Amino acid sequence: MGLEAKRSPLEEPVLWYLDFLRVEKAASRHTVLAYAGDLKHASTYFDKMGLESWKDLGIQMLLRYQATLGPPLAATTAQRRMSALRSFLKFLKKNREGPETPLPSVAGFKKPKLLPKALSYENLEALLSAPDVSKPAGLRDRALMELIYGAGLRVTEAVTLTMAEIDLSESAARLTGKRGKTRWVPLPSLTREWIVRYLANARPKLVKKPTVLLFVSDTGRPLLRQTAYKILDRYRIEAGLEVDVSPHTLRHTYAVHLLKGGADLRAVQELLGHESIATTQIYTNLDLTEVQKKYQAAHPRR
């Protein structure tokens, strides 16, 4: 019989917490994997320090771990790792399995929220026109970019969208966003036209075996988030744009163009799937005065 690797006593509580996120909180697979990675990093450190129980975790050990998260590690990564650890310890404390030591702060790693710059109409058109739509992959890329911009999709929403969630007769898409919340968004006529062209002339050539997904890769597999980022960056270069472009840039541009065009702030909030109007204000990087003006104009009891 082979010798089994000795399991760290810190591992079982982490698995318990991940199950809690998955089952009780209905967290997405992406979220659970992110927490698993960050807590594995912390567990490995504390295990090497000789910690045998999370109950024994002291402030000095916490501070030493926090000190390992400085440069060259990105501030966003450090903040995420400390946030994951803080949430985990809070969970253990609530279930009387955690340390009595104060929870670690993440404030030292915070930095101003960086938002992409909205593309001008000219740059947007140059980007959207870059793919060679005479080829199946190019037509798919054009339809993908048109959909992300035209409906303000998150990249995950775009690459996981199914055929059943696109209603071409109603020119709308049903999206499942963060925490499983569903919303319907209208599709502009031009966006609908590119999806129709893709479905007729590209998707049948790309699909190798039956799939419910709207978009597939060049090999017929599910289109990954990372692939969507690479697609946009390639066309950014081909279009000669000197600004960063990502799926988030297109979603941001969608929101800014709608608001500049006079759209109601509450409507944009619903279309983006934001729970709070404050999130929409931050997301679109609007001046607070402009937000208040649009809010007052939209509110029935102004």
Can you put this structure into words, describing what you see?
The protein is 54% helix and 4% strand. It is mostly helical and 302 residues long.
List the defining traits of the structure above.
302 residues; mainly alpha; three-stranded antiparallel sheet; 4% strand; elongated
Topology summary:
Elements: H1 11-24, H2 29-48, H3 59-67, H4 75-94, H5 121-128, H6 136-151, H7 155-159, E1 166-167, E2 172-176, E3 182-186, H8 189-201, H9 203-206, H10 225-238, H11 247-260, H12 265-272, H13 277-284, H14 288-298
Antiparallel strand pairs: 1-2, 2-3
**Roughly how much helix do the residues carry, as a percent range?**
40-55%
Mean pLDDT: 84
**First CA to last CA: what distance?**
76 Å
Number of helices: 14
Let me know the number of strands: 3
**Shape label:** elongated
Pattern of helices and strands: HHHHHHHEEEHHHHHHH
Structural class: mainly alpha
Largest sheet: 3 strands, antiparallel
Radius of gyration computed on alpha carbons: 23 Å
Give the strand order, joined by hyphens, for the main sheet.
1-2-3
Low-confidence stretches: none
In terms of DSSP E residues, the strand content is under 5%
Summed up:
This protein is mostly helical.
